[in-house]
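The following block was generated as part of the benchmark described in Methods. Ligand: fe (ii) ion.
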Amino acid sequence: MPSSHAAARDLEDRLHRLNDIGMALSAERDLNVLLERIVQEARRFTRADAGSLYLVHEDRLEFQVAQNDSLKSFVGGRRGQTGVPPVPLDRSSVSGYVAVTGETLNIADVYTDRRYRFEGPQQYDRISGYRTRSMLVVPMRDHEHEILGVLQLINALDPDTGKVQGFTDQDESLIQSLASQAAVAINNVRLVRDTEALFEAFVQVMATAIDERSPYTGGHIRRVAEVTMILARAVNACNQGPLAGIRFTESELDELRVAAWMHDIGKITTPEWVVDKATKLSARFDRIELLRTRYACIREATERELLQRQLDGENPDKLAAERRQRLQQLEADLEFLERANRPGEFMEDADVERLQEIAAQRYTAGGREYPRLTPDELAHLSIRKGSLTESERKIINDHAVVTIRMLEQIPFTRKLSRVSEIAGSHHEKLDGSGYPQGLRADQISLQARILALVDVFESLSAADRPYKKGMSPETVLRILEEEVQANHLDGQLLELLVNQRLFRCLEDIKERMRNQQKNTV
Ligand SMILES: [Fe+2]
Ligand SMILES: [Fe+2]
């Protein structure tokens, strides 16, 4: 028998350890690791040969972890599912009883105990060859006294002889305390996990909303997010060259994933007609129709004029020749305007001059004279490359500014503190010619470079832009290489992207998305 002095010291020692265990448990963020540790620490604390843990899920108890030193059996926790069926939440089993009643059971020998007659332990023993004797089963209550689960300890061992003995009253009260601390830790992990899941779902809903605003760019964000993560993991696996020493932590990967999902969030404010601008004269609609009607009017007016001149006695043969020439000219001009309206055409100086000549001509309608092209039409048709005017380009580019402004308003956790910086830099270029901030290479993080490369890669590969057919992988690669040569994109990352066969990956992702879409229609 230890002296009362020694007993007091032993208790003090155990309380200290209990405190340490509580702190260690509250620091754990992985639920599976946490559950495993709870059983481990509780067993160590009471010198129990075996132990298990159940969590309440709806109307049942789910078996999470089981450890048995004698049987050398360890299941659940980090090792994944236990494969053991759930226990009904009623009084028929030891754990069910404790979960329903909230009582702690401290049984010296389950075979001979007269108060409780549970079949479970003996059935288990028959199958496993084990001999369950003493048992300490405690409910795990959180701070609101709700029972989250049950902690079950089996066969306390005498430290000297190794023989099975009963759990002491002190074990009982200390394990009750440990179980409550464990319950609070479980609740915390779940809370963090649920909050993260909620945020993640919110981010994806926002991104999907933006993706779905445009039938042309649909799915861009999702594809960028997926390819970004593949490329980031490829950086982590890279053992050669300047990227060899770089290893993103899981937190950094999470941060990059959220940034990728949010990179175009600013597009929520971009007018659809600019995003999807298919031709140069598109505003709310393509104004080429106006030009066609106008040219039909001019043609009719020309015919009328020539007829009038014939009635006035001019030579019909000369008039017929003039008619042919003028109508042919009108037709050629309209054809030229239609071609100029297509953004795929590069406008040479001569083309712009011809537009100006057409604009300088006038036609009469309803007794009034008008220019053949309004100054606004002339300005739009004179766009040298693409379909956007400078001011429209600015509206599009503004999405990067809006992205930063929106993300800076979100109180990100420390883990996600760089989301705004990464997402907001996806249009920056290494030579400083990007937007919105014109950052230079040393100011652009590797994560932002990954995102920038994947963004261009995905956009070029997309078959569904308003005025672009899908480019062949060779063309996409050539353009990306030119971007690297121009010191816009990171060459090391491009090399990795090519080595990882991400072209194939992107096709697989698109295929998967098409199938998902088909299944949801
Ligand atoms: Fe963007
Ligand atoms: Fe983008």
